[in-house]
Write a structure and sequence with these properties.
The complex is a heterodimer.
Chain A (H helix, E strand, L loop, with lengths): L2 H10 L4 H13 L6 H30 L2 H7 L2 H25 L7 H8 L5 H33 L8 H25 L14 H7 L2 H19 L3 H8 L18 H12 L2 H20 L7 H17 L2 H8 L11 H7 L2 H21 L5 H8 L1 H12 L14 H29 L2 H29 L3
Helix pairs in contact in A: 3-7, 5-8, 6-10, 7-8, 7-9, 10-11, 13-14, 13-17, 13-18, 14-19, 14-20, 17-18, 19-20, 19-21, 20-21
Chain B lengths: L1 E4 L6 H5 L2 E12 L2 E12 L3 E5 L6 H8 L7 E6 L2 E2 L5 H6 E4 L11 H11 L7 H11 L15 H14 L4 E5 L7 H16 L3 E5 L3 H7 L2 E4 L4
Parallel strand pairs in B: 4-9, 4-10, 7-8, 8-9
Antiparallel strand pairs in B: 1-10, 2-3, 2-5, 5-6
Classes of the chains: A mainly alpha, B alpha/beta.
């Protein structure tokens, strides 16, 4: 604020939006100094330390673990551009989607109701949050690029000069991520200035943000924060999920007792095309990687990425199963016993996943040097991902919360990741045996892991069903 | 607890009908906190028992015990002579309850829910749509059939929940304050439906705070006293 502004403010109050906002923030803080910038700098400081302590060694281990020759064969030329481009596009799409749930501009509710709803220019009122978020994206991109470059250099697979393109590239991706994140928030409101002209144009984007949309995101951020602190990711998931409004005139057709549950899940996916597509892309990528991983010489990281993508893809198609788990303990209206209903919810995602696995396997088998194992191996993974998702959907609440004494964060994290860990360990170990040992050994490990997942999942279903009877 | 017969409403048909639900000294406490003081209750086929009592007296707990969703700490609760347990297929097949918000899928419409419920109970596939439409028409919410649960008002949600419970086959109907959030006309409508269910031989146990509805449907009124 200029001296003239101060003089005017002293006489009759500030006249500019900046001046009025400064005065309002002083009142809100009760005379205490501004802490937000200090917190942001501290967060960046912690991120730098964490990158050096954990990021660089992990990056180095990754590049050491993966066969450098295989990596250079697949990450150079057109294929490399496609892989890196795919990752960048995926990150930007994720940022865009995140913006519709929790954008970069989410002030607290009292500020929104008492300051942002005033006649002040919204670009002025909200720019503080946007600047902090954008700075966070830039720091994140910069550090990621630097960590990847440092890992390549320390692993001895690239010269020091590679640090320059990776760091600058990370910075550019960070900037694009910030833009996509804000655009996602702007586009989450159905009307107003929301076209491509708002991308990375801060003032224009901030003015396009609607008060009701900001309020919704702010309230959701509080709910999700509480859910995460309490270790209740289910509450956070339900709060994030967009309500269905599509295909309301398409009726669920009456079927047999079990078939109708599978039909229900299929209709649910038809009403959530975004979820269907995400599941299809991830399942295809996962099955494609799993089919390739059956070829001798392909590093285990491909099997790891394949199982991870397959698990996430199957999970995107398992909403019906999760909804049943969410509703455990409510009076039964469905005619099937709880356990049978849970198994019925496996039909649709398993059938879709198996179909994708067959198609991917056939394509890989006919277009590469992979043998017949490329066809049946992704299909054989179906039971493992199905069992682990049964575990995940009916796991209930963790026995400890983040407020519990001791290493609660690690305990809650481990408790939630058990299904994924079982899928990764079982799937990658079996695939490694497939190319390094024998088909029998690989199949035995996969069957054992799948059996363990399904049995543990069924036990979770029974425990959750009986939990409310105490 | 005090139980009394309602004047002039106990029909000879009710007396002749078999005993369906029986609660003998059933009570519930959790770690010393008494949710329901020991209580007796008997309900026959074609009979309606209305539970009354102030908030926290244990009406909902008693209904949960009758639904087989909660085990009594003391005493017993039986359905056709067998212990009530919702894990028992016989209990599940016979007892329908609306005690708290029931399961609803956020990606299914109102009519989809009815078709799903009917199919899982083995309803006739060829007539499922017609029967579902007819029930919604009876409840005067047929215009809401293609709405998703999150698009319903509070009172419409209650009617949707009632529709789901009424649509599944059952011989016993347990309802916890079904008149909640309903306007006067809808309460009258619900009363008529419940009277028809009773006349068809169903056993009704209903927690109700509406004196008009209670007068119309109750054969017996049980006052549930708090601990």
């Amino acid at each position: 604020m200029s001296e003239r502004d101060d003089a005017v403010a002293g006489a009759s109050g500030p006249t500019t939006d900046e001046g009025r906002l400064t005065q309002a923030r002083k009142v809100i803080r009760g005379g205490l100094p501004e802490q937000g910038n200090g917190n942001a700098v501290y967060a960046a400081y912690v991120a730098v330390i964490a990158s050096l302590v954990y990021g660089v060694p992990a990056s180095r281990a990754f590049f050491k673990f993966v066969d450098p020759q295989w990596l250079s064969r697949h990450l150079t030329g057109v294929q490399g551009v496609l892989v890196v481009g795919g990752i960048v596009v995926g990150v930007l799409l994720l940022g865009y989607r995140l913006g519709s749930v929790r954008g970069p501009v989410v002030p607290d509710l009292p500020y929104l109701d008492h300051v942002a709803s005033s006649a002040l220019d919204r670009a002025v009122v909200l720019r503080r949050w946007w600047r902090i978020s954008l700075a966070g994206c830039l720091v994140l991109g910069l550090l990621t690029g630097a960590v990847v470059g440092t890992g390549m250099v320390s692993a001895g697979i690239a010269p020091v000069v590679v640090l320059l393109p990776t760091t600058l590239g990370g910075l550019v991706v960070g900037l694009a991520l910030g833009g996509a994140w804000l655009w996602g928030q702007v586009r989450s409101w159905p009307t107003g200035d929301r076209g491509p002209a708002t991308v990375l144009r801060g003032r224009r984007s901030l003015r396009a943000l609607h008060h009701v949309g900001l309020r919704t995101q702010s309230a959701r951020a509080v709910t999700m924060g509480g859910a995460v602190l309490a270790g209740d990711l289910r509450a956070a998931r339900l709060d994030v999920a967009a309500p269905s409004t599509r295909l309301r005139r398409t009726r669920l057709r009456a079927r047999g007792r079990v078939t109708v549950v599978a039909e229900r899940d299929l209709l649910g996916l038809r009403r959530s095309p975004g979820t269907f597509v995400v599941g299809l892309v991830l399942s295809t990528a996962g099955c494609w990687a799993l089919a390739h991983s059956t070829t001798p010489g392909v590093p285990n990281i491909v099997a790891f990425a394949g199982v991870l993508a397959a698990y996430l893809g199957y999970g995107a198609w398992s909403e019906g199963m999760r909804l049943q788990g969410d509703n455990a303990g409510t009076p039964a209206l469905i005619g099937l016993p709880f356990g049978e209903e849970a198994l019925a919810h496996l039909i649709t995602p398993s059938a879709m996943f198996a179909a994708v696995a067959v198609v991917c396997g056939v394509v890989v088998e006919t277009t590469s040097s992979a043998g017949p194992a490329a066809i049946f191996w992704p299909v054989a993974m179906t039971a493992l991902v199905a069992g682990t998702h049964l575990m995940a959907a009916f796991r209930g609440l963790p026995p400890v919360t983040l407020f519990s004494p001791g290493s609660a964060v690690i305990s809650v994290g481990f408790w939630y990741s058990r299904p994924l860990l079982l899928a990764l360990i079982g799937g990658v170990a079996a695939t490694a045996l497939l190319t390094r040992s024998s088909l029998t050994n690989a199949f035995m490990v996969l069957v054992l892991a799948s059996y363990a997942a399904v049995m543990f999942g069924r036990r979770r279903v029974r425990l959750l069903d009986e939990a409310h009877r105490a | 607890m005090a139980a009394r017969g309602k004047q002039g409403t106990t029909t000879p048909k009710t007396k002749a009908n078999p005993l369906v639900l029986e609660v003998k000294g059933a009570g519930k406490d959790i770690e010393g906190s008494v949710l329901l003081a020991p209580i007796d209750l008997r309900a026959k086929a074609g009979q309606c028992v209305v539970l009354r009592g102030e908030n926290g007296s244990g009406k909902t707990t008693l209904l949960r015990i009758l639904a087989g969703a909660l085990e009594p700490s003391v005493g017993s609760a039986t359905f056709n002579g067998a212990p009530l347990d919702e894990r028992d297929p016989a209990t599940r097949a016979g007892v329908a309850s609306l005690v708290g918000a029931p399961t609803a899928y956020r990606d299914l419409t109102v009519i989809d829910h009815l078709v799903l419920i009917d199919s899982t109970w083995g309803g006739q596939i060829s007539t499922a749509d017609e029967r579902a439409d007819a029930l919604l028409e009876t409840l005067e919410i047929d215009h809401l059939s293609e709405r998703f649960p999150h698009e319903l008002s509070s009172g419409q949600q209650q009617l949707f929940h009632l529709a789901m419970v009424l649509f599944r086959p059952s011989t016993v109907l347990l309802l916890d304050e079904p008149e909640q959030r309903l306007d006067t006309h809808k309460r009258e409508l619900l009363t008529r439906i419940l009277v028809e269910r009773k006349a068809a031989g169903a056993t009704l146990v209903i927690a109700c705070h509406d004196p008009v509805m209670t007068e119309a449907i109750a054969d017996r009124v049980v006052d549930v006293a708090g601990a």
